[in-house]
Amino acid sequence: MLDRARELGSSTVWDRYDALQPMCGFGDLGLCCDICFMGPCRIDPFGEGARVGACGADADVIVARNLARAVAGGAAAHTDHGREVVAVLHRAAEGSFQSGYRLSDAGKLRTLAREWGIAEAGRADRDVALDLTHAMTLQFGLQQGPLQTALRAPQPQRTRWDAMGITPRGIDREVVELLHRTHHGVESDPVALLRAAMRTALADGWGGSMLATDVQDVLFGGPRAIRSRANLGVLEERQVNLLVHGHEPTLSEMIVAASRDPEAIARAKAAGADGINVAGICCTANEILMRQGMPVAGNYLHQELALLTGAVDVMVVDVQCVMPSLPEVARCHHTRIVSTSPKARVPGAERVEFDPLRAKEIAHEIVNRAIEAYSKRDPAAVRIPRERMDLVAGFTNENLPYYMGGRFRSGYRPLVDAIAAGRIRGIVGIVGCNTPRISQDSHHLALVGELLARDVLVVQTGCAAIASAKAGLLRPEASLEQAGPGLRQVCEAVGIPPVIHVGSCVDNSRILNVCTALVAEGGIGRDLSELPIAAAAPEAMSEKAITIGMYAVASGIFTAFLPVPRVAGSRVVRRYLEQDVEQETGGKFLFTNDVQEASHAVLATLDWKRKALKLAPMMYENGVPAGAARTFVTYEPPKGLESLGCGHAQQRSQARPPDE
Ligand code: BF8
Hints:
Layout: H1 2-8, H2 13-19, H3 25-28, E1 32-33, E2 41-42, H4 59-94, H5 106-115, H6 125-141, H7 155-164, H8 171-181, H9 190-220, E3 226-230, E4 240-245, H10 249-259, H11 262-270, E5 276-281, H12 282-292, E6 296-298, H13 303-308, E7 314-317, H14 326-330, E8 336-339, E9 350-351, H15 359-374, E10 389-393, H16 400-405, H17 413-420, E11 426-430, H18 442-453, E12 456-460, H19 462-470, H20 478-482, H21 485-494, E13 499-501, H22 508-521, E14 533-537, H23 543-554, E15 559-561, H24 571-585, E16 589-591, H25 595-612, H26 646-653
Parallel strand pairs: 4-5, 4-7, 5-6, 7-8, 8-9, 11-12, 11-14, 12-13, 14-15, 15-16
Antiparallel strand pairs: 1-2, 3-10
The structure holds FE(4)-NI(1)-S(5) CLUSTER with Oxygen.
FE(4)-NI(1)-S(5) CLUSTER with Oxygen binds next to helix 12, helix 19 and helix 23.
């Protein structure tokens, strides 16, 4: 597709990234402070330059403040998504579900109502939904915590948070307070800033994101294991291709429904197409995959490549991870970009503003635009790569017990037993984005491949899950090809893939719920920090990724984060987040650019936790099947692409302050 971009004279994120080299070294180290207008001040860690900014802030304060601001940004994005879906459910219930939305999972609605202390017995679903969403809305403006959903965390974890003063209070309060504390001349203690950032991150993971997942399940249905396909080859030459891209499923679910309307299909056929193909990019892809089995066109770095195929008729975008370049790239073909969110206009794109009360009508309008665009498609300009891969997705904390234990032994006991007995080494959540700093998916696949071979069950969300999907790791057969013998036995016995796809990035909350359920099951740890689990974001790009990393660490989970975020300029920040914080939360970060180092550290963490718990030795030492010595799984970028991203990332990773 990059060759095709050159043929078409279009630039992509890789071209723009290369054109920006060399990027700012001060910024890369986190040492550029632009928080007030005296600056921007740049701290020189190497020699003669300034050691403090104009206000006197040193490198540690500046790095901590910049990082904390990123955490606030990431938490704001996730939690505002949560707020939107809660509001959509509330308004749908107020209008007695006349707007087209319905309660797809009344069972989950009632389970949640009981958890939230809302009377549900003998009451209509609508009334329960109104009370529940009212209570959920209040969580955003709460002045004193704890957040209702944070009470799901195991008690020992909550005790740690209380002791540190990081139990999340109101969701908005945490974001606002962190922005206040990072304002010029407020919090000047770097470690206090990092603790405050963790509290804000917890308000995301155990708050806004958890609300988003719960409410989306109520509205659109709790997922079940479902088959689908992934990669650009899911685009269809003879169908209207409508791509949905972004994050909130409130419109994309309606678009899927509208695309199945017999009248719309008839209109598409009248325009010469065989049908309407709705596929996704980024987390919207994961949302409609998990519940509807819709195909996935790709992850973050595929958004422009999809447009270059010339086969996309309309791409609908809402919020987050949408490149402003899309209208420019789409100009090579007939493709129409339609922006929909009242919070996110895209200059150069068409506009159809989302209104939850008119969602059905808007979805039909967008489908019609796609059909209209199809008739302008130039078949001679279409180049759809053949690559597409089967997959199984749709796992959740609610349905995993059934898939792991079957009807007669449903529960987490089989999984806990497999871990305790040494068949499975542990569970690792691998999440997050793509970035042009790393060859696309290379870190994801290297890390996942290595962990599977060592009998580690991998749980994924977001663009990380899509990377595995494209590589075939979400097929049950992948356990035969990639898993160590212990993991393979478990996967084969229950028929699941060795990589479990649990949804979009807000669905990292499902991973927290799985961990909590493992603690409750008993036998492999009394809180999250004792469980043989870990996390990784191997190709992190967005502020949301560092927020997720922060709440994982605050929840007691060892987290490998690549590439190194902008922390290298402060010894204090690195020491706290990669070392000292473990005494407080039980978790810590590893910041590295080296995926092998990440892999070794994750495996060492699992082994260390297993030893502390006195679990049985691994059944298959090092996960190596007899007679088949494995080497580290490496990814070779295709010829000609070696220079894209990686070279620069490595070059920049050398930069370290002299005292590091
Ligand atoms: O929220 S993984 S690139 S799409 S930020 Fe964005 Fe990163 Fe993809 Fe989903 Ni998450």
